[in-house]
Design goal:
This protein is an alpha/beta fold. It contains eight helices and six strands.
Length: about 170
């Protein structure tokens, strides 16, 4: 546990990987859950922990966990409004290479996570569809998504991809 969500995520990651290294880490914003949940399967495909940070700069606990784990590569989830370019610069200053996985909104980032997961060895044979306005089901399944390296896709309900929050290009992923 920790005083803040960043601290708790760092404690979980360093405990889960105790005595081991993790070349990859996944970094998501600490003030909302959307991107971190969308990244659960992606993190599994990379065999990486999900760490949390503030929007405007890399949190001390996230930085400490990356150092403790020997992280060499970070995947930032979300656009610059979610995780600023300052966080990217902070990671690069640590010698960490960075990819950003983002869409125009949480739905687009969810789809981008699915594509990145597939490009990095995850499976899209199955996908988990979750309503973004009620995160409890997504939290319940996120561990399974990690273990099985499958995407967690945020969507609303409707007849078309656009009704569900996706544009036509994203719906074809």
């Amino acid at each position: 546990s920790g005083a803040l969500s960043d601290d708790t995520a760092a404690a979980i990651a360093t405990s889960a990987y105790e005595g081991e290294r993790s070349d990859n880490v996944v970094v998501a914003r600490d003030d909302t859950y959307y991107d971190a949940l969308s990244g659960a399967g992606l993190a599994g495909a990379l065999k990486a922990p999900i760490l949390l940070t503030g929007t405007d700069g890399l949190s001390d606990s996230c930085r400490g966990a990356i150092k403790a784990l020997g992280g060499k590569h970070a995947v930032i989830l979300g656009g610059t409004a979610a995780v600023s370019d300052q966080v990217k610069s902070d990671l690069e200053d640590m010698g960490v290479t960075v990819d950003r996985v983002a869409g125009d909104d949480v739905y687009g980032t969810s789809m981008a996570c699915t594509s990145y997961l597939e490009e990095h060895g995850g499976s899209t044979k199955y996908a988990i569809a979750c309503n973004p306005t009620s995160f409890v089901d997504a939290v319940s399944i996120s561990g399974w998504a990690y273990a099985n390296q499958v995407p967690v896709m945020l969507q609303t309900w409707g007849d078309t991809a656009v009704d569900r929050g996706y544009d036509d290009a994203a719906a074809k992923v």
